Structure formats: structure tokens, C-alpha cells
TrEMBL record, chain A:
Organism: Oncorhynchus mykiss
Stored PROSITE patterns: ACYL_COA_DH_1, ACYL_COA_DH_2
Record flagged with keyword Nucleotide-binding: no
Subunit structure: Homotetramer.
Underlying gene: LOC110531877
Protein name (database record): Short/branched chain specific acyl-CoA dehydrogenase, mitochondrial
Source lineage: Eukaryota, Metazoa, Chordata, Craniata, Vertebrata
TrEMBL record, chain B:
GO BP term (any one): fatty acid beta-oxidation using acyl-CoA dehydrogenase
Gene, per the UniProt record: LOC110516750
Domain annotation Electron transfer flavoprotein alpha/beta-subunit N-terminal: ranges: 24-216
The species this protein was found in: Oncorhynchus mykiss (Rainbow trout)
Listed name of the protein: Electron transfer flavoprotein subunit beta
SMART domains assigned: ETF
Self-association and partners: Heterodimer of an alpha and a beta subunit. Heterodimer composed of ETFA and ETFB. Identified in a complex that contains ETFA, ETFB and ETFRF1. Interacts with ACADM.
Coiled-coil annotated spans: none
InterPro entries in UniProt: ET-Flavoprotein_bsu_CS, ETF_a/b_N, ETF_b, ETF_beta_N, Rossmann-like_a/b/a_fold
Primary role: Heterodimeric electron transfer flavoprotein that accepts electrons from several mitochondrial dehydrogenases, including acyl-CoA dehydrogenases, glutaryl-CoA and sarcosine dehydrogenase. It transfers the electrons to the main mitochondrial respiratory chain via ETF-ubiquinone oxidoreductase. Required for normal mitochondrial fatty acid oxidation and normal amino acid metabolism. ETFB binds an AMP molecule that probably has a purely structural role. The electron transfer flavoprotein serves as a specific electron acceptor for several dehydrogenases, including five acyl-CoA dehydrogenases, glutaryl-CoA and sarcosine dehydrogenase. It transfers the electrons to the main mitochondrial respiratory chain via ETF-ubiquinone oxidoreductase (ETF dehydrogenase).
Length: 431, 253
């Protein structure tokens, strides 16, 4: 690499382009169409409105979170990434805005809205910071949903109101020896009268540093294979629960990812979530929904990155014209925009299918697989379009590039998504 | 101590690049993003704050215009207003609508609702008129505290710190009164998601200007709208003498 050459380029680049913080302004809603609410569509007699149609409530929520994210979260992003630490102020403001209990019933202090609203919220947060988006996603699509669907009245009473107001949750399935092969997990739960003793260790646990409650998947009966897996509610202050040092990651650095050690921890019987031995079903069920949330995160990431890069191409002049005006650039930009649009439609449709109670698993896999690939393509191209400055930490695109990589890996690797889709496709041709 | 009326105007969003219509009759509004006037947001925030401090019981958000303004009223409800009033104005009347008509509507509503305060933004970012608050006060024969950067209620009087050209001016006016919000009065809150959900249940009443006895006929006719002239490049000079010579040469001094 010819360093003097690069230094020269970046110096010129800096004179032309706006610095980081200014780039963030004016990142408002970039849609060319004004939104049409579902009510307006119905009034116009449009029976099958396009996917980009939102109820008035969804539209207002999306605009409120968009504004909040661009104005209140954006200033923290760079520092959180550098220090690999989520600012407690940020987490507090997420709770204050009601973003951590979107589907939770207002009687437990939640917002009482819909799954699609959560998807829009995650997308808007991811446009600014994928780490904040994933914190919000895990809380809403995994933790809150598990408690709401499976919790006894007492468990809901105890936990849901905390989850919507001040407590973060973590979902603990993966172990060092079981990632994609989740059901071969080794953490054991041995019954002793009215309590269980859990032993084992978990890995790659997101939100671990901040969580007040952990949903731990452990096997009560290894001889039964996966049919022994049970979901346990473990409070942070449980004796024997050790949260290991967080991983030093390539991307999503502000999101804490830690190993967990469970050393003879005692968990009362009443802390079993759902039924004994049904944990594997719950895990699959939740991950099917969670994957739409991750799709929304990758979608927001791609869009946010794109929104940063295109204004630069419209400003930067070389050979007497804007670099946007070169046909090669236009074709690349249009291609990426198309991919993002397709990713958006896959994600929104999967979300609407789930809300409608229709089969959605294949579509959810497609959404997660496709958006994570699109995020990878988009961020890579955006750095290229911004040239030398795209490669520096002064500009935000390199962070999006590092953050997108986890998209193809977590909550079901791309290979797992493809195999799952193939199983469905196989069945479709069964008659 | 009861009710405050807050005016909220739906304007083109501040971040949008404005374009003049080809027929020069106005600016392009079709398909363009609109939102609540920033000074109106500050007015809403102040009214909601007064309610939280228990100086007033009810905040009513009012907007005049076609059906789309209900979105703006809903945003005000999501920020904490109790109910809304939508004064329906559309078509030619809406295009010609200006401070005179609005202030008549607000004056009529202030009397009808028995409001103790009418709080408006100091001006709208689309027409920059800065007249509605003042006209409303005159029509009602109420005192006015305009360009307010600080508002304190003390019994039946209001202390208003106003931002004026020379600095800050503090006045004490009796209620009922009209206040207009300036930039530094407060920082508007974000509508939290639970409040957006609650806003769905709050009522928005509909009425027409005729119901309030207001005629919408405009006394102003817009002849033409132009874009501002493109800014020309400047000229660099070496010394102060050169500067003076150049200014003299082009007739500036």
C-alpha cells in the first residue's frame, strides 16, 4: 500500500466532504414516496396495498424512533464502538422511549404494540447503530416473547414489568461445543427435590454484561437427547453464575458478548419457563421469529450505510463531474438499491405473514439469509464508492462493514438457513 | 386554572429541499415530507410542561387545514396534549389561508373553550410571518408575551422573558394571555412509543371555520413565487485598500 498516496487522497477528500458528525444530520426519512397509511389505502379502495403500507400507529412509531436514533443515539456510536462498551445512558433512553417492551401489555408497563412495530423500530435503530438494534431485538423478539407466551402469571408478574422498564435479558443456548448443533448442548440440570442444580458453560451470550435475567437452556435428562432440554429463568445474582470477560470483536463491539459459567447454581422449580423437556421447541420457535428481527437489523444497517455513502458520491467531483454521474457508479448504486429494496420486501412480508398467523418459517429464513448477504454487499460497495475516506475511521461506513459480518453467522448461520429452506422446498413437492 | 390552547401547523419538513412550482404560483407540496412546525413543537412542550407542573388542567391541540393535519394533531397528542381540534379548511381556502384567518379562528376557539392561555410558535418555517400570535391577542384584546424564552406562571399573572434585539426583556402580564414560543424556551420531548399508543385513544373534534363564525376570504393575493437568485462567486482582494477601492467601484460605498 502506497501510504503517502493514501494520505494525499484522504487530505483532498477531507476538504470536499463533510465530517462524520455533520454526515449524520439530514439522515431523515429518505423515501421518495410519502407514506400512505393503511387507513388511507382503504379509503382509496386499495384492497391489496403495497408492503410499504403502515398503520398510522406504526408510521408514527417509526418516525419517532427515526428521530430519536438520529438525534439522541448518533453522538454515542463512535465512542461505544471504540471502547467496546454500551453507554448506560443509551440503554436508559431505550427503556424511557418504550423501545424495550414493544409487544408487552401496558398492564406490565409495555407499549402494547405489534410485532411489525418491533421490526420497524429495529430497522430504524440499526440505521444508526447495529449494536443498539441487536440489544433491542433480543429483548423484544426473544426474551419478552418467551415470557409472554410461556410465563405463568407469577413469572409474568415478576419479570415482564421489569423487562419493559429497566432490566435487560439474555438468551443462553450456544456453548463452546454446540453452535449450529444446538441440541447437543452439555449444560445439565439435575433435580433435587424442589430445585435444580445447573452445571455447565455457555458461550457467545449477547447482552450478558447488562442483563439482569438469563434464560438458560439446560438438559434435565441427557439420555432423552434433545427432549430433555428445558428453559430456566436464572437471575443475575444467583450464586455460582459467573459472567466471563467479553469478547474483543470485529464488529457489533458495543454489544457485550460473554461466556457464562454455571457452577452448581441452584434454580427453584418455579423458575422453569414452560414445560420440562420442551425447551428445544421453544428455542426453535423463538429463533424462527428472531430471525425476522435480525433481517430487520441487517436491513437497517444496509440502508443506513447506503444513506451515508450516496451523498458523498453526489458531492465528490473528479474529472469535472460528480462521481455519481459516471455510468459505472450509477449502475453499481442502482444495483445495490435494488438489492436493499428486495431485502426490505422479504423482511416486511415475513413479518406480515407471521402477524397474520400464516406459515412464515421459510420466508423468515429467506429474509434473514438474503438481508445479511445484501448488508455485506452494500457495506463493501459503500466503502469503495467513498474511496480512501471510506477506509478511515473518521467516516462511518467502515463500522457498518465490520458490523455486517455477524449477520451471516448468528441466530442461524447462512448454511443453516439454506438447509432449512431446502427442507421446506422438498416438502412442497411431496404430492 | 384550566385550559390551554396550543396551535400546531403542518409545514414542509425542515430538511426538505424546497422547489418552486413551474407556474410560479407557490412551492411544490405534493409528495413532499411534512411535519410539525419546530416552533409549534416547542409550544406543545411548554404547554405539556405547565400541565405536568399542575398549573393547568387540560391542553388542547388545534390545527387548521385538510385531513392530513390530523397527523400533526396526533403527534401533539403523543407528546402529551389531552385532546385535539381539527378545523377543516381545504382547497383554495387552504392555499390562501394566512395569519389573519388563523388568528380569527383561534380567537373564536379561545372564547369557546374558555382558555386561560393560547400558546403558539413564534412563526412558521414556511411563511415566516410571525403575525398569528400578535393578531390573535389583538382580536381577543388579551395581553401578549411573544418570543418567549422563559415562562413562569404566578397566580393570575405570567412572567415572560422575551428575546429581543437588544437582549432579554422581562414582562409581567395578566391572564388570559397569548404567548408565542421562541427557540430557547425548551427542548421538545420525543414522543415515546407508549404515548403514541395512548394518543390513538384521545379525541380529535372536527369543525369548520363557518361553525366559529369566521370567514376565510383572503385580503392577500400571491402574485408570483421565485427561487432566490443563485449565489455568485466572491472576489478575493489582497489588502484593505483594495477592498475599499472595490466597494467604491461597485457603488456599495
Amino acid at each position: 500500500m502506497a501510504s503517502p498516496l493514501i494520505r494525499c487522497f484522504s487530505k483532498v477528500g477531507r476538504q470536499v466532504s463533510r465530517p462524520w458528525s455533520v454526515c449524520q444530520h439530514g439522515l431523515r426519512n429518505r423515501s421518495t414516496q410519502p407514506d400512505m397509511s393503511a387507513e388511507q389505502a382503504a379509503a382509496l379502495g386499495v384492497t391489496y396495498p403495497p408492503l410499504q403500507t403502515y398503520s398510522e400507529e406504526e408510521g408514527m412509531m417509526r418516525d419517532a424512533v427515526n428521530k430519536f436514533a438520529q438525534e439522541r443515539l448518533a453522538p454515542f456510536v463512535s465512542k461505544m464502538d471504540e471502547n467496546s462498551l454500551m453507554d448506560p445512558e443509551v440503554i436508559k433512553s431505550l427503556f424511557e422511549q418504550g423501545l424495550m417492551g414493544i409487544e408487552i401489555d401496558p398492564e406490565y408497563g409495555g407499549t402494547g404494540s405489534t410485532f411489525f412495530s418491533s421490526i420497524l423500530v429495529i430497522e430504524e435503530l440499526a440505521k444508526v447503530d447495529a449494536s443498539v438494534a441487536v440489544l433491542c431485538d433480543i429483548q423484544n423478539t426473544l426474551i419478552n416473547t418467551l415470557f409472554t407466551k410461556l410465563g405463568t402469571a407469577a413469572q409474568k408478574e415478576r419479570y415482564l414489568s421489569r423487562l419493559s422498564t429497566d432490566m435487560v435479558g439474555s438468551f443462553c443456548l450456544s456453548e463452546a461445543e454446540s453452535g449450529s448443533d444446538a441440541f447437543s448442548l452439555k449444560t445439565r440440570a439435575d433435580k433435587h427435590g424442589d430445585y435444580y442444580v445447573i452445571n455447565g458453560s455457555k458461550m457467545w451470550i449477547s447482552n450478558a454484561e447488562q442483563a439482569g435475567v438469563f434464560l438458560v437452556m439446560a438438559n434435565v435428562d441427557p439420555s432423552a437427547g434433545h427432549r430433555g432440554i428445558t428453559c430456566f429463568i436464572v437471575d443475575r445474582d444467583t450464586e455460582g453464575l459467573q459472567i466471563g470477560k467479553k469478547e474483543n470483536k470485529l464488529g457489533l463491539r458495543a454489544s457485550s458478548t460473554c461466556p457464562l459459567n454455571l457452577d452448581n447454581i441452584k434454580v427453584p422449580e418455579k423458575n422453569v419457563l414452560g414445560q420440562i423437556g420442551h425447551g428445544y421447541k421453544y428455542a426453535i420457535g423463538m429463533l424462527n421469529e428472531g430471525r425476522i428481527g435480525i433481517a430487520a437489523q441487517m436491513l437497517g444497517l444496509a440502508q443506513g450505510c447506503f444513506d451515508q455513502a450516496v451523498p458523498y458520491t453526489r458531492q465528490r467531483v473528479q474529472f469535472g463531474k460528480r462521481i455519481f454521474d459516471f455510468q459505472a457508479m450509477q449502475h453499481q448504486i442502482a444495483h445495490v438499491a435494488t438489492q436493499i429494496e428486495a431485502a426490505r420486501l422479504l423482511t416486511y412480508n415475513a413479518a406480515r405473514l407471521k402477524e397474520a398467523g400464516r406459515p412464515f418459517i421459510k420466508e423468515a429464513c429467506m429474509a434473514k439469509y438474503f438481508t445479511s448477504e445484501v448488508a455485506t454487499l452494500t457495506t463493501s460497495k459503500c466503502i469503495e464508492w467513498m474511496g480512501g475516506v471510506g477506509f478511515t475511521k473518521d467516516y462511518p461506513v467502515e463500522k457498518y462493514y465490520r458490523d455486517c459480518k455477524i449477520g451471516t453467522i448468528y441466530e442461524g448461520t447462512t448454511n443453516i438457513q439454506l438447509s432449512t429452506m431446502a427442507k421446506f422446498i422438498d416438502k412442497e413437492y411431496d404430492h | 386554572m384550566s385550559r390551554v390552547l396550543v396551535g400546531v401547523k403542518r409545514v414542509i419538513d425542515y430538511a426538505v429541499k424546497i422547489r418552486v412550482k413551474p407556474d410560479q404560483s407557490g412551492v411544490v407540496t405534493d409528495g413532499v415530507k411534512h411535519s410539525m412546525n419546530p416552533f409549534c413543537e416547542i409550544a406543545v412542550e411548554e404547554a405539556v410542561k405547565l400541565k405536568e407542573k399542575k398549573f393547568i388542567k387540560e391542553v388542547v391541540a388545534v390545527s387548521c387545514g385538510p385531513s392530513q393535519v390530523t397527523e400533526t394533531i396526533r403527534t401533539a397528542l403523543a407528546m402529551g396534549c389531552d385532546r385535539g381540534i381539527h378545523v377543516e379548511v381545504s382547497g383554495k381556502d387552504y392555499e390562501a389561508m394566512g395569519p389573519l384567518q388563523i388568528s380569527k379562528i383561534f380567537a373564536a376557539l379561545a372564547k369557546k373553550e374558555e382558555a386561560s392561555l393560547v400558546i403558539l410558535g413564534k412563526q412558521a418555517i414556511d411563511d415566516d410571518c410571525n403575525q398569528t400570535g400578535q393578531m390573535t391577542a389583538a382580536l381577543l384584546d388579551w395581553p401578549q408575551g411573544t418570543f418567549a424564552s422563559e415562562v413562569t406562571i404566578d397566580g393570575e399573572t405570567v412572567k415572560v422573558v422575551r428575546e429581543i434585539d437588544g437582549g432579554l426583556e422581562t414582562i409581567k402580564i395578566s391572564m388570559p394571555a397569548v404567548l408565542t414560543a421562541d427557540l430557547r424556551l425548551n427542548t421538545p420531548r420525543y414522543a415515546t412509543l407508549p404515548n403514541i399508543m395512548k394518543a390513538k385513544k384521545k379525541k380529535i373534534a372536527n369543525m369548520k371555520p363557518a361553525d366559529l363564525g369566521v370567514d376565510m376570504v383572503s385580503r392577500v393575493e400571491v402574485l408570483r413565487v421565485d427561487e432566490p437568485p443563485t449565489r455568485l462567486a466572491g472576489v478575493k482582494v489582497e489588502t484593505v485598500d483594495d477592498l475599499v477601492a472595490k466597494l467604491k467601484a461597485n457603488g456599495t460605498i
